[in-house]
Amino acid sequence: MRILVTGTAGFIGSAVALRLLARGDEVLGVDNVNDYYDVRLKEARLARNHQYSNFRELRADIADAEAMQRAFAEFQPQRVVHLAAQAGVRYSIENPRAYVDANVVGFLNILEGCRHHRVEHLVYASTSSVYGANTRMPFSVRDNVDHPVSLYAATKKADELMAHCYSWLYRMPVTGLRFFTVYGPWGRPDMALFLFTRNMLEGKPIQIFNHGQHSRDFTYIDDIVEGVLRTLDNVPQADAEWRSDDPDPSSSSAPYRIYNIGSNRPVSLMYFVEVLERCLGIQAEKEFLPLQPGDVGKTYADVTELRRDVGYQPVTRVEDGVARFVDWYKSFYGVSDEQPSDEYACSR
Predict the structure, then answer these.
(1) Helix, strand, or coil here: 48?
(2) What is the pLDDT of residue 342?
(3) In the 3-class helix/strand/coil scheme, how is 64-118 assigned residue by residue?
(4) Which active-site residues does the annotation give?
(5) pLDDT digits (tens, 9 = 90+) for 7-61
């Protein structure tokens, strides 16, 4: 198929594009390659995609309506995986306009492209952050998500509402995926695992917020990619059992679905750090700090619906995933080491 993937210089977008290319799909990757973090890492991710002759790249901002119109008109995608966004909870407090431009205006341009070019299925990235002030665990797609605690989360909730509107008005098949703390090789430098690894190797302290009381549904990149592809291949239909007098937020009488995509196994942040210490063979110097504005203490994904509908089953243990990240990090940044991380040692 011809598949347009946005965010192909990003962590998840690059990995999804690679899997699509490997199975023979023709991919147009869209990314503006901005400097939110190290552009060299983004270029290296793109270089992996360019190894395939069925990959084409468009450097453009999804908030540029004219550029997006041309991309859809010229490529004529059959399906779209929209992963480009301004990410990061904390940065949304410092630079809120960037989130509205990318996550709201940009998403509108994607929806318009899908509508006018009769795309068979749009899969887009939402986030576990939409659960906001919710504390009932595990988070279910049937829960109310009207209390976001960051503008990032609010823009992603807006995306879900906009997606339903287009699905309802134009009978456009749309699926949203709420990602839960994705980690692994080629990850984002602003995420905890990357920050911790860099500081520990440089002999610097690591900052642990919420005084170490965090727990996260850490989800390995390969499990995420498998879920995205299974979802893309499963075009939603209108839910014949949906009731307007008792509406289920995860489905609709339009061809619309929302899913959680996580490991379904929350891990305490302190255990996560312990695993990293074993993989690196370094005892971290820890600086304990209060909970940051916009952050939440715990995430835990209920993936019942995704398992039921597409057979999603995450398989990667956090010990194995952290070991693989450490090996990639040392290789990519040229950190000298006698041998690769021992997954057994990491899990002891």
Answers:
(1) helix
(2) 61
(3) CHHHHHHHHHHHCCCEEEECCCCCCHHHHHHCHHHHHHHHHHHHHHHHHHHHHCC
(4) 152
(5) 999 999 999 999 999 999 999 999 999 998 999 999 999 999 999 999 999 999 9
